[in-house]
Write a structure and sequence with these properties.
single chain; 347 residues; alpha/beta; 54% helix; SGNH/GDSL hydrolase family protein
């Protein structure tokens, strides 16, 4: 009897948490808010073009641009990048897409030092997945993804606990409200960002100029970043390279076209990456993808040197603003429209 009563209590607690935890999401950080709303993206079975990647895609390329380049309806573009995304998440989404999207013909994805190295974003991604990511059994059956997310039983148990009791997904965010004055002073802006992110999911598939709340945030050349040091991005995360290799093998096997993008960071970020030799791993991956393009199924576009003097194109160190997005869209259309039309004619 006691066991049954305890079970009923736990089920009741779980139901209440699932019904109410969304009311607290606006108190979370920007990336967590984005992941929360991204859980409900609509997967159209008639999708022909898949867009994957991290917040550089979110801020830098719109699904409308992709639809125009590929000459498809906007509804045929599945736009599912996530901030702090890593190759384990991208491989997971790729596998799910192959199983669910019978008309898929091309994939867009971005690669940068942020997803080829071991850095703080790698750890943040894992916690974001536990807290807000959609669970799929392929994340256990695919060895490399399992290695990234579930290295031991504790990891699996923690994901299960959060799935049942979602308040635990909010704990790290909500706890800081009580002791971190920076978070306390930022609550009103977080609430506003939450509204804009929600609207972007409903109307623009999640394309959103990073940190924009109706304005176009602009980086100034005079902005000072004393702690900027990209040395950690120079190191190789072996698992990331293995995950990328696995992804492109699968795309090759499925005979899918791929556009690989190295979206530019701000001038200060790019100069620091060059100074610290932090582009070497990413450059080697891009070079390999270009050189192994035996069937002409891949286009590799490296834009790291494209906007080295254009501070006004960036919202912050790592994200393009609306002006930068528009400038990149023009370049992409110029480079890819001819390629797309040529490919279509050859088919």
């Amino acid at each position: 009897m006691k066991v049954r009563f305890l079970f009923i209590i736990l089920v009741g607690i779980s139901i209440v948490m699932h019904l109410t935890y969304g009311k607290f999401i606006s108190y979370c950080d920007t990336t967590s808010i984005y992941w929360y709303y991204a859980k409900n993206r609509n997967w159209n079975q008639k999708t022909k073009i898949l867009v994957l990647g991290d917040s550089q895609i979110v801020s830098g390329i719109s699904p409308e641009t992709i639809a125009e380049i590929e000459n498809v309806n906007l509804s045929e573009v599945l736009y599912i990048p996530l901030p702090s995304q890593q190759p384990e998440g991208i491989l997971s989404d790729t596998l799910k897409s192959i199983h669910r999207l019978p008309y898929l013909r091309k994939v867009y994805v971005n690669i940068s030092p942020l997803n080829t190295s071991k850095n703080s974003i790698t750890d943040a991604h894992k916690q974001l997945y536990y807290s807000f990511g959609n669970f799929d059994f392929l994340q256990i059956t695919e060895p490399l993804i399992r290695k990234a997310y579930f290295g031991n039983l504790t990891d699996i148990s923690w994901k299960l606990v959060i799935q049942i009791f979602p308040y635990f997904a909010l704990s790290s965010n909500l706890n800081r409200i009580f002791y971190d004055p920076i978070v306390q002073s930022d609550l009103s802006r977080r609430s506003l960002e939450s509204e804009f992110i929600k609207e972007s999911m409903e109307k623009k598939s999640g394309a959103w100029i990073w940190k924009s709340t109706g304005d176009d945030p602009t980086l100034q050349e005079s902005d000072n970043f004393q702690n900027l040091d990209t040395s950690i991005l120079a190191g190789k995360r072996e698992l990331s390279i293995q995950l990328w290799n696995q992804m492109f093998k699968i795309l090759d096997y499925q005979n899918l076209d791929v556009v690989v993008l190295r979206i530019p960071f701000s001038p200060k970020m790019e100069n620091n990456l060059k100074e610290k030799n932090a582009n070497l791993i990413t450059d080697s991956v891009l070079e390999f993808l270009h050189n192994s393009n035996l069937q002409n199924k891949r286009v590799v576009l490296d834009f790291k040197n494209e906007f080295l003097k254009e501070y006004s194109y960036f919202a912050d160190l790592t994200h393009l603003n609306q002006k930068g997005r528009d400038a990149l869209a023009k370049i992409l259309k110029r480079l890819l429209l001819d390629h797309t039309n040529t490919s279509a004619k050859s088919m």
